[in-house]
Design goal:
108 residues, mainly alpha, extended, binds magnesium ion
């Protein structure tokens, strides 16, 4: 059975999120400034491009199907706190190197 337009766009959203993940993992392995041989586009640029691809699909879903992607400051703040909490836990587990930068919660 053929997909609906909504199903197609949801698949594209998943695809583009996967491409963000791929680029992020490349940057994790090789650094933000690394470029593929024969190109001048670095991993940071590629993450930016893929995030914009995600934004394009989000706009299509919002425009065509009324999906609400308005950022929620409370959910964002909660996510930042959660990620930072797990970051410190990872440091305590010996899996991350502590860095000099100060980690601030959303309330700071
Ligand atoms: Mg893409």
């Amino acid at each position: 059975m053929a997909m609906t337009r909504l199903q197609y766009l949801l698949g594209k959203l998943a695809e583009e999120c996967g491409e963000v993940a791929e680029r992020a993992l490349k940057a994790q392995a090789f650094g933000l400034e690394e470029t593929r041989p024969g190109t001048s586009t670095n991993n940071a640029d590629l993450i930016f491009e893929e995030c914009n691809d995600v934004e394009g699909i989000k706009k299509m879903l919002a425009d065509e199907f009324g999906m609400d992607f308005t950022p929620c400051p409370v959910q964002i703040a909660n996510k930042i706190d959660k990620v930072n909490g797990y970051y410190f836990y990872s440091i305590n587990c010996g899996m991350c190197e502590p860095e000099g930068g100060e980690i601030k919660s959303h309330g700071n």
